[in-house]
Amino acid sequence: MKTIRVIGGGLAGPEAALQAASRGHKVHLYEMRPTRSTEAHQTSDFAELVCSNSLKSESQNSAPWLLKQEMRSAGSFLLQDADASAVPAGHALAVDRVAFSARVAERIAENPNITVHREEVLDLSPENADLTILASGPLTSKPLTDALQQITGSDQLAFYDSISPIVDATTIDMDKVYFAARWDKGTADYINCPFTKEEYDAFIDALANAEQAESKEWEKLQYFEGCLPIEETARRGRDTLRFGPMKPAGLTNPKTGRWPYAAVQLRCENLRADSYNLVGFQNHLKFGEQARILRMIPGLEHATFLRYGQIHRNTYIHAPSLLTETLQLKARPDILIAGQLSGVEGYTESIAGGMLAGIFASALLEGRTPTSCPRASAHGSLLYYITHSEAKSFQPANITFDLLPPLEEELRKRIRDKKERHRIQCERALEAWQSWLQPVPAGV
């Protein structure tokens, strides 16, 4: 009988195993803990939530809510267990970690189609299974990482993730900033925040005294020279940032006719231009410190930050060049990648990836060609993002409305209210998702 090997007992692995097993397939689920633990895990439990206990917003018509609604309609097992383990958390779905893990473990133990192996997988040889779902997460062991690199190429895995802050465009003081392209090359798409010398000196002093985010012992970061956090760059000399991400050269301010002393550039995040990222402003500061210091940037004094900067350990593949829209490795279609290793961020997104991997793998074992999710859906948008992103700038992502297809221009002009736009996007997504689900039996 054909079998599926699932590697990883975090969130994506158990979900993938349960989806395939519920469709009658024999699954071998491998988890190396407790034989070998990771630097982050505290237990050997399935579905251990290493960081927070939140699976994000349950507010209707939010992007996290949409993803979970799609998962519920598709029969996600771990989301059922999360709902059953929920604790009061306002508009978020937060769980009792112990109860959640216990429910997942019980569900796996009760399924006769799943055999659990508490041992480390050292290679990805095709002789060991008909199909493999690799869901080993951001702390994939070195032997398994080496095996993956042999298949994909040594330069196809990233080990540190740098993320720049993102600001809500509506909270930028446009009277203090200006649009310009460096040396007037191309269109003036960047928002430039100009500094005087006094403002720059105060900003550098604040950076020098800022409190860094705590790093776990296993997450000691060896920064890439081409991607240093701004506070590290600032420590190399007071003018270092002025010759790096805050370089003013070629950014003539139309209000003064001169270059500013220094400048922060904001780059548009999406076609709707409702959010901008701070170019080159990855950092390793506590979020509270970021909120304080980034509001010292001219024009951002009252800014709302949609995301703060981060640099952290996170192993993931270069999905745009390696994965198909059905999570299969192009070089080895018998291997599917699920969870954070595929380039998604977050608990819910990882479970969603595991659910899809289980569905796709089941179709393959049954001799069917799996069909990717509709682009309009939250799942489809995540898959589209990780497999079609610009290769040079690919970074892991959570589900956001930026990933979903925008509304038609005429509709966007007519509907100014952002909440109403999101409601329509969610309605379209759920309709497309339901149509896709009809020929695919949900897990029971």
Name some characteristics of this structure:
single chain, 444 residues, alpha/beta, FAD/NAD(P)-binding domain, Elongation Factor Tu (Ef-tu), domain 3, 2 domains, 6-stranded antiparallel sheet, 5-stranded parallel sheet, 13 helices, 32% helix
What is shown here, in short?
This protein is an alpha/beta fold. Helix content is 32%, strand content 16%.
Mean pLDDT: 88
Low-confidence stretches: none
Reported CATH architecture of the largest domain? 3-Layer(bba) Sandwich
Order of helices and strands: EHEEHHEEHEEHEEEEHHEEHEEHEHHHH
- Biggest sheet features: 6 strands, antiparallel
The rough form would be described as: globular
Strand content: 15-25%
| CATH level-four homologous superfamily name of the largest domain | FAD/NAD(P)-binding domain
Quote the distance from N terminus to C terminus. Answer: 22 Å
Computed structural class: alpha/beta
Quickly count the helices: 13
Number of structural units classed as domains: 2
How much helicity do the residues have? Answer: 25-40%
- The value of Rg in angstroms is 23 Å
What's the CATH class of the largest domain, please? Alpha Beta
Number of E strands: 16
Adjacency order of strands in the biggest sheet: 10-11-12-13-9-14
CATH topology of the largest domain: FAD/NAD(P)-binding domain
What's the SSE blueprint?
Elements: E1 3-7, H1 12-22, E2 26-30, E3 54-57, H2 63-74, H3 77-84, E4 86-87, E5 92-95, H4 97-110, E6 114-117, E7 131-134, H5 142-152, E8 157-163, E9 166-168, E10 178-179, E11 191-195, H6 197-208, H7 230-235, E12 262-268, E13 275-278, H8 287-294, E14 305-307, E15 310-317, H9 319-322, E16 335-337, H10 347-365, H11 378-388, H12 409-414, H13 418-437
Helix pairs in contact: 1-10, 2-10, 2-13
